Amino acid sequence: MSDQGGCVERFSAANPERLLGVLSGHRRILVFGPAGSGKSTLAGTLCELGGLPAVSADPGSPAFGVPGSVGWAVRKHGRWLTQGMEAVCSLDAGRFRLGVLMALGRLLNGLEDRAFVLDAPGLVRGMAAEEMLLGLIEVCKPDLALVLSREQPLPLYQAFCASGLRVVHVQPSEQARHPGRAFRARWRTALWDAYLQKAREQSLEIRDLHLIGAPPPLAAVSAWAGRQVALIRGGRTRCMGEVVNIAHERMTIRLPASMEAGDVLLVRDAQRSPQGLLRTAVPFVKEIITQAPEDTEGSASPKLCGRVGAVGFEMLNGMFGDPLLHVRLLHAGRSLLFDLGMGRRLPARRAHQVSDVFITHAHIDHLGGFLWFLRSRIGAFPSCRMHGPPGLARRIHALMDGILWDRVGDRAPVFEVHEWNGSTIHRYRLVAGRSLQSIGTASGSDGVLLATDAFCVRACLLDHHTPVLAYAFEPHGEIHVRKERLEHLGLRPGPWLNELKEHVHAGETSVRMRLPDGSERSVEELSEHLVLVRPGKKWVYATDLLDSDQNRERLVRLANLAHTMFCEARFLAADAKQAMATGHLTTRACAEIAAQAQVARLVPFHFSQRYAPDARRMLDEIERYAPAVRVWRPDVPGESA
Ligand SMILES: [Zn+2]
After folding, report:
1. Which among 572, 566, 578, 582 has a CA at the least distance from the CA of 620?
2. How far is the CA of 363 from the centre of ligand 1 (A)?
3. Mean pLDDT, residues 424-451
4. pLDDT at residue 417 greater than cutoff 60
5. What fold does the segment set 8-181 form as a domain?
6. What percent of the chain has pLDDT over 90?
7. pLDDT above 90 (res 325)
8. Which of 182, 257, 556, 568 has its CB surrounded by the most CB atoms within 10 Å?
9. How many whole angstroms from 361 Cα to the centroid of ligand 1?
10. Do the beta carbons of residue 81 and residue 100 sit within 8 Å?
11. Res. 7 pLDDT band, cuts 50 70 90
């Protein structure tokens, strides 16, 4: 590899005039190199000096044209004039190589056999880069490659040699440097704004369009605002635009004044961020708390779901229904429940994965769903833990005892109930059809009811004219793999990353792992380059508590600095008397507790049916009393993860 004389000549980017001599006799010139090596500058200079058009193949960081597309342009007096483009679904050329290559193929159909300079994406390492290079050669048919690199051997040296292309190594100029993500986002946005400079808002009937690409569900209105889209007809991109909103089966889009009609709408995975920058869209399913269609009769509550860090949650009966919070530990294949209200139920396969149920207290709206849960646990399942205030084991046992279990044999549901009275945990074992069995006590003075190697659940004792427990979920650290570094190391993502996370989690740093490229490295070495441990996001679940000084003080301490707080707000502030009499919070008390605990996001719930189905008054009032807290509203994206 040290001798590159075979297929490579050398020049310096500082001398483009000398390079011009090299170009003569060649028709299609591939300019290749990592981001920040000065590819685009060089391509621009060559086009200007040689009178050639340029083709950009990098939808995420194009040197010219419209971001989100591949395009071609001519250069006059130092400015690019776009001549044509083809939209692609993603900004990421590396991950979505096929889309980029197919769009290039369509674009080049319009260029026939013209000569041009091809500005390649800054992808130079690993399989993705090699595949992209081979694809570019096949689709664009270059006969000369200018490779900008400070490294020896050149990136993808073997692939270049095998290609039969004439390869010229161009030494990058001293000033060329990596632009950084923030700069690229600003540059991309500036190009996009320039394209839309004279855009007008147009309203299109949604049912007249075929939606392709990455469209979020139509009901997720907020996921549409700022989306980049392209209008396509006859397989060719006619123009691109930005969604303003969707309402009443119509979509309002900012489109260039000279727009051509299309019958296909390609919805790109790019979206303007709240800061105004054009970025890869936040994946809809992961990040948005949404209203989903109803699937139970009688209940008017919208369903609430979203994410906090590595945890997915769903408030099954929405804001007005009986409390039942399903929490899914995304990397552990296991679930937790908080309360067991009546209404919707979990699918059986999820109910089987519940390891712990945390009951606040045994009122019927918090425990009425126990029977369906009990039924789902018939079979060869491990025992399920149930945590709650004193008296819980006896009540659960009484519920189970109301059923005849003569045919269940060894498939009887098994529970372990842990009652916490503020200082001690009393444990009981319950097997359907048998008597209640005490299995001892443990200290619970720190309030930790469940501790695993990934998180703990802490409780505090509150007053609801009966003892009630509120719960805090406190994760240890969250392990993140730095995907952008993978490419740098020439590694492909895959299941081995989960294995790496597990080893890091367990502290097994000396273990050696076999990687997809066949090499072997230690967990310690890999984690040093690839792994980030961030503090996890704490969240709190609290419901049914009297608005008293002692309750406020205890709950604020439990919820201090939590990312998300699920908190009851049963009555409007004007109905404070009713709240006091029934031992509940008002919107105002809920807001003040969340604000005092400095939580980032508040998900209020357990609204009284007297206000159903319109939650707006409740939410407005909560926002008024907690202006610094982000209060959940339908159609408001929840920045989580
Ligand atoms: Zn209650």
Report:
1. 572
2. 5
3. 94
4. yes
5. Rossmann fold (3.40.50)
6. 44
7. yes
8. 568
9. 7
10. no
11. low
